[in-house]
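CorA-like Mg2+ transporter protein, putative, pasting as requested.
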Amino acid sequence: MMATKPAALGGGARLHPPVLNSKHLVIEVRRGELAMNEFTCQKLLQKVKGSCRVPDIRPNGFITYRDCKQLLSDSDYIANVDTRFECILVRLFPVSAIILHDSVLVVANGNMSMDNFIRALCDITRDYGGGRQAAQSPAMPHTRPSDELDGSIDYTLPFEVKALECCYAAALSHVEQEIAAVEEKFRVVELMVGEKRTYQDINMILHQMKQPVVNLGEILKGFTDMMDELLNDEDSMKLLEFESHMTFYGPETLYPGFEERVVNRDLENLMEYFDQEVDQMARRARTLSSSLTELEKHITVALAIIRNEMMRLELICSILSTAFAAGACLSGLRHAGRAQLCNRAVRDERRQQFREQSRRVHRDFAHRTGLPLLRDIPGQASHISAPRLNNHGASTGRDARRR
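Structure tokens follow.
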């Protein structure tokens, strides 16, 4: 939007010149044609003052440098419609414009597509003939022109109000498109939740949607406050028509005529219509914000349930692992006891077999030699005992050599 040339400093750094000297792209729409110019704040002020047709008015009636500076500032989400002599300063994000008696100066804004807006302003300035409405008789401010004029043009509202209506419509259309885009994205998120997509992807999209919803809420809050202030102040409503400017900004003797003037009923209906549109969009924005909050709560509860299930599963696994470990220990002890008992039984059995074999050998020896058995000799049986066996049931070395 700005065409500035950076200025060099001594240390090699480069800074942009002050905002006072920066240029802004301003589109002038007059008589169905448009012209693009780059104006500084001072040049824009001179342009607006140059279009004034009556020099003898109150000093506070003209547009000031401060007014132009506020209009060209980069402060977003500010809604304001202010009047100066034969000009209306419109600040309805993203529309910034100055409505004059025969033309409209629009500050270019990259946040919106301005094609339809500029085309509508061209049609309005072409139809009204650049001041044809101002040439009407003051005694009939709200009547249709004579038959010599084009009957297809509705002059119920003056040129400046029609241009203001176009600015309102462009701003609200942009906001409505933003709300529709966020609503569509929210429906996609709801489908993702229904399809059980990963919560990480869903939370990422929700985080990206938060800031646009907050911005829409701020914009619509500014619109609502501005519309309430405008509708509750009859003087502000009267000043939206340039026909009342001379009685308000002119000499003091004309001011009583401004107090006696009645608010244009068509203008009041138009402002009430836009107020209803703003209220409806504000409700949609609040619904979006609450829906995002509820969806985040739903995801938080779902994650908490999953976490509790995981903790319970982990606890069950810990109990099972402890039970398995205890069972393994008990089973090992039992198997060790059984093995020890089996080894003892084997040793006893082998020892008994050895004793039986020894007895048979002694009996055979006694039978062949005719000698009595040792057990039959008094005092000798007690010296014969079973051989010592090792753990595997085999006899020790001394007994083996004795055999």
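Note for the archive: The longest helix spans residues 265-369.
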